[in-house]
Amino acid sequence: MAHKYSVILVTLASDGGNVWERPREVLETVANAGYDGVDLDAEPDRIDAKQFKEVASMAASLGLKVPALICAWGGWHAGEVRDLASSDEAVRSYAVGYTKKCVDLAASLDEPPLIEIAAVPPQSEYPVTSVPRPTLRRNFVKSTREIGAYAAPRGVRVAIEPINRFEGYAGFLNSIMEAKSVADEVGADNVGVLADFFHVNIEDAALADTLRLAGDSLMCIHLADNNRQAPGTGHIDFLQVVRTLNSMGYSGYLSLDAVPARPDWKTLVNTSIHFMKQMEQTAALQDRIASAERMAAG
Ligand SMILES: [Mn+2]
C-alpha cells in the first residue's frame, strides 16, 4: 500500500531551508524527492496573506498538496503564550482565538488542510505540573469543543497532538492514549489525534499497539525516528510501522518532522522518503512471499 508523505517545512528552516525566503528551491527539492505535500506554518498574524497564497499556489503548481497547517504552541516556537489548557480565561481565550484564525487560514485553501492543537504550558514544570490534571483536562476539552465547532462548518479537521512531558504539560496530554480519550470525550467528527513518533516513543506503549489504539481517530502522523532524526537512524521498527498502517488501511499523511535538520535539510528530505518507500516495498514483498506460499499449499 502506497502511503502519502509530506514535509513540515518549518523544520527545514533550522538548516537554511526557509520556504518563506527561498520558496522555489525548497518546494522543488521536496517535490523532486517524491513527496505528496508540504505542511505550512499557521501564523496568520505574522506571515503575509499574499505571500502565504503565493507559496501555496507554487506548491500546487509543483503537484504538492497542503495536507496540514502547523500551529506553534510552545513559547520557544510561538514567541508568546498560547495555552489551550490555561485556567486563566483570558489566556485560554487568546489561544482559542489564535486557533480560530488558523482554521480560517486553512479554510481559505481550496482543499482545507487539517490543523494540529496541543497543550503546552507557559513554562515547563517537570516532573509534574502544579495544576491538577482534571483541571487542565477540563480547560483543554472546553477549548477543543470551541475549536471543533468553529472548524466543522468550515470543512477543517482538528488533530490533537500529544507532546512529551519535557515540552508540554508534565503529566497532561503527553500520550496518544490520553489524546484519544480527550477526542472521544469531545465527540466531534472533525476532531481526532495526531501521532508524532518522537513523542509517542517517549510516552506511549509499543508504537504498533499505539497506532492501532488510535485507530480511526488517527488523522496524521509526524514522522521521525526515536531520536527525532530521519526515519531509519534510530531504533523504531519502520517495517512494522508500515505493515501496521497497511493493516489499518491508514489513508492520512506521514509528515516529516525531524529537528534539527541533519546532516543538512536536502539530505534529510531525500533520504527520509527513500527509506520509507523501501519499507513499503519490503512490506509488499513479504505479502507476495506469503501469498505465494499459500498458493503452493493450494
Ligand atoms: Mn510534531
Give the beta-strand count: 8
- Quaternary state of the chains: single chain
CATH superfamily: Divalent-metal-dependent TIM barrel enzymes
User: Which regions contain 5 or more consecutive residues with pLDDT less than 50?
Assistant: none
List all distinct small molecules, including ions and cofactors, that are bound in this structure: manganese (II) ion
The CATH architecture is Alpha-Beta Barrel
Order of H and E elements: EHEHEHHEHEHEHHEHEH
Q: How much helix, percentage-wise, in residues?
A: 40-55%
Major β-sheet profile: 8 strands, parallel, barrel
**Separation of termini?**
25 Å
Shape: globular
Please tally the helical runs, counting DSSP H or I stretches of 4 or more residues.
10
What can you tell me about this protein's structure?
By secondary structure, this protein is an alpha/beta fold. The chain has one domain: Alpha-Beta Barrel (TIM Barrel), CATH 3.20.20.150. The chain contains 10 helices and 8 strands. The chain has helices at 23-33, 49-61, 75-78, 89-107, 133-151, 176-186, 197-203, 207-214, 238-248, 265-297; strands spanning 4-8, 37-41, 68-70, 114-117, 158-160, 191-196, 218-223, 253-256. It has an 8-stranded parallel barrel with strand order 1-2-3-4-5-6-7-8, surrounded by 6 helices. The longest helix is centred in the C-terminal third of the chain and has 33 residues, at 265-297. Manganese (II) ion (MN) binds next to loops.
